[in-house]
Amino acid sequence: MKFSNILTKYLEILFTAQGDMAYASAPKTLAALAKGAANLKMFMNAGATAPEWAAGIKFGSFTREMDAATGDVNITGVGFKPSLIMVMNASPLGTSYSIGWGTGLGANQGYIRGTTATFMPEINTQYIGYIIEDAAVTKYQSYALAAFIVDGFTLSWIRVGATAAGTATLIYVAFR
User: Fold this and answer.
1) Which of 125, 128, 129, 158 could crosslink 98 through cysteines, CB 3.0-4.6 Å?
2) 31 plus 104 within the same structural domain
3) What is the pLDDT of residues 106-164, one digit of tens each?
């Protein structure tokens, strides 16, 4: 039997469906990745050993008590380690909002914030958001991206001023 015939037979066994893709699962060892579903993208798996198909985007929400102390909080359940997050929030009283983003520390994060009376577009390299609870801006929580973790991200919170009442709901979009 010719080598080309052997190779053809091997590939017919390896690739069982149209659209399957080859990758090296070990040195000199071919494996097949089944074709992905519509609108999925190819990523490297968490162990960095093989390609996989995934959406790469996760929407979610979490809450923050306005009287919570300064400190780091892990947001988990994302399903992957993000490379970019966007966080949107309004204060519990509806007096302010912010939309922030982060791809890393320092210059790679920022936010836009506003109140019912004013809109203050502002890029900040230190924080990705604020939850402002009073018009004088004396009671608020600010948050920065501290780290991306295996199943989500860590926000570093700072409470400023006297404690405020209420619970803020924050919505995030995480991108792989």
Assistant:
1) 129
2) no
3) 556 666 666 655 556 566 666 677 776 666 667 788 888 889 998 999 999 988 887 77
DSSP state, residue 127: -
pLDDT tens-place string over residues 17-76: 787 877 888 888 878 788 888 888 888 887 888 888 888 899 999 999 888 999 999 999
d(CA 58, CA 79): 8
Please give the Cα distance from 153 to 10 (Å, whole number): 43
Largest Cα span, the chain? 84
On whether residue 155 sits in a domain, the answer given is: yes
| Domain of 20, in residue numbers | 3-40
What residue type is assigned to position 66 of the chain? M
pLDDT-above-70 percentage for the chain: 76
CA distance 58 to 19: 26
Q: In this structure, are 21 and 97 located in the same domain? A: no
Number of domains within the chain:
2
Contact call for residues 90 and 129 (beta carbons, < 8 A): no
First to last CA, the chain: 47
Place of tokens 């929407």: 59
Query: Which phi and psi angles does 85 have, rounded to 5°?
Result: -130, 150
Domain membership of residue 52 (yes or no) is no
Which amino acid type is present at position 122?
Answer: E
